[in-house]
Amino acid sequence: MNSAHARIAVVGAGLGGLALARILQLHGRSVTVFEREAATGARPQGGSLDIHGGTGQVALRAAGLLDRFRALARPEDQVWRVVDPVTAAVLPLSGPQHDDDSPEIDRGQLRGLFLDSLTEDTVRWGRAVTGATPLGDGSWRLRLDDGTTEDADLVVGADGAWSRIRPALSDAAPGYTGVTLVETGLDDCDTRHPALARMVGNGTVLATAAGKALLVQRNSNGHFRVYATLRAPLNWQLAADVDLGDATAVRAHLLKMFDGWDNNLLDLLRHHDGEFVNRPLFVLPVPHTWEHRPGITLLGDAAHLMPPVGLGANLAMLDGSDLARALLTESTLDEAVRAYEDLMLPRSARAAADCAGVLDDLIPLTDD
User: Fold this and answer.
1) Which of 98, 119, 173, 237 has a CA that sits 20 to 30 A from residue 353's CA?
2) Residue 301 annotated as binding site
3) DSSP structural state of residue 4
4) Torsion over CA of 72, 73, 75 and 78, rounded to 10 degrees?
């Protein structure tokens, strides 16, 4: 089938799916995005992302959004520092660093760039896809949670870690890494907590010791996003007898766990605003591959869920860009999907292996 006239359904309005939709629309192609969230602001979109020149910026250029990205991005915040957990003294960085042109931007701002660039009604909000069924002719039927169905010549699973589309291609399921992030934040830190703001400065600060770490990331408007990172059982809170809905109890438990660390670092937990959110880290097997099936594929976390150490969002956007390019240049829909998968699968396997190594370096089991 010629992809120019294909009915393309993207499941998930994350960065990768939106990059795909934007590039296709730039070239006059029709595409529909199904998103389970009720509206664009239905939930927080997470922290700041460093957008790399060789991956995420490539996709933004293809989407015609690079200049708008640079107008919002914060190049001054791409600084990364590691500090001693006891003294907060800055330590030398070891190992390879990413390219120097990796400005930061809040994930919500970046998603907004893509959403604002799409034609009206491209994203169908509140349409939760529960699965996909082959129709026998290479096309697929999407099942939605309201009982309705939608047919498509190409279904792209861009629906994240717990993808409802992945089971049509793969039996793989995310597994727990043994690392959990407990997230909180501080609002208007430059004004309300100037000492902490001076300690953090621009960018991201990490303090790490055996089995635990504190990471603080500057976002826009003086907001600091803080992650207490633990090597712990998946349900660590049960053994600790901590109610995750009780911010006072969570704070007390974390302060006990990080007892002896620099007082300013601990103030990041003491002065938090709002709740603590438990975020266990899951990953897909490495490599994660599947046997090609006509009319369906995956991108982003649905295809290669990996530790969140700076590559996931960049690769998701690059996936979307590469799939769009294949759809625009290959003769048939199936040739396009094959070309995309031949490029994406080995690339994502290498990246996932690298990210697993970075996670082990950031949160070592011992101090040795």
Assistant:
1) 237
2) yes
3) G
4) 150
DSSP 187: S
Both structure tokens of 110: 């970046």
How many independent structural domains does the chain possess? 2
Spell out the residues 6+ positions from residue 314 whose beta carbon is closer than 8 angstroms to its own. Answer: 49, 51, 52, 55, 56
- Please tell me whether 127 is known to bind a ligand: no
Amino acid, single-letter form, for residue 107: R
Task: List, in order, residues 6 or more apart from 143 with CB less than 8 Å away.
Answer: 129, 130, 131, 132, 133, 149
Of 57-61, 81-85, 116-120, which gets the smallest average pLDDT? 81-85
Six token digits for residue 137: 């002719």
The domain in which residue 268 lies consists of 175-281
Single out the residue of 126, 309, 160 nearest to residue 227, CA to CA: 309
The count of other CB atoms within 10 Å of the CB of residue 262 is 19
Q: Which of 229, 244, 110, 117 is nearest to 178 (CA)?
A: 229
**pLDDT single digits (tens) 162-220:** 999 999 999 999 999 999 999 999 999 889 988 888 888 888 899 999 899 999 999 88
Hey, how many other C-beta atoms are within 10 angstroms of the C-beta on 361? 12
Residue with tokens 């601990």: 266
Are 60 and 168 within one domain? Answer: yes
Candidates 308, 335, 31, 333; CA nearest to 158 is: 31
CB-CB contact of 365 with 315 (8 Å): no
Q: What letter would DSSP give residue 75?
A: G
Burial category of 362 from C-beta neighbours within 10 Å (exposed 0-12, middle 13-18, buried 19 and up): middle
Give, as one character, the DSSP assignment of residue 220. G
pLDDT at 64: 98
The reply to whether 188 sits in an annotated binding site is no
Tokens matching residue 346: 């080995």
- Residue 87 belongs to some domain of the structure: no
Same domain, 23 and 161: yes
- The tokens for 321 are 């860009």
Identify the three-state secondary structure at position 215: strand
CA-closest candidate to residue 228, choices 201, 245, 260, 250: 250
Q: Which residue, chain included where needed, has tokens 């994406």?
A: 344
Residue 100, marked binder: no
Tokens at residue 117, please? Answer: 């660039």
Token pair, residue 71, equals: 């107008």
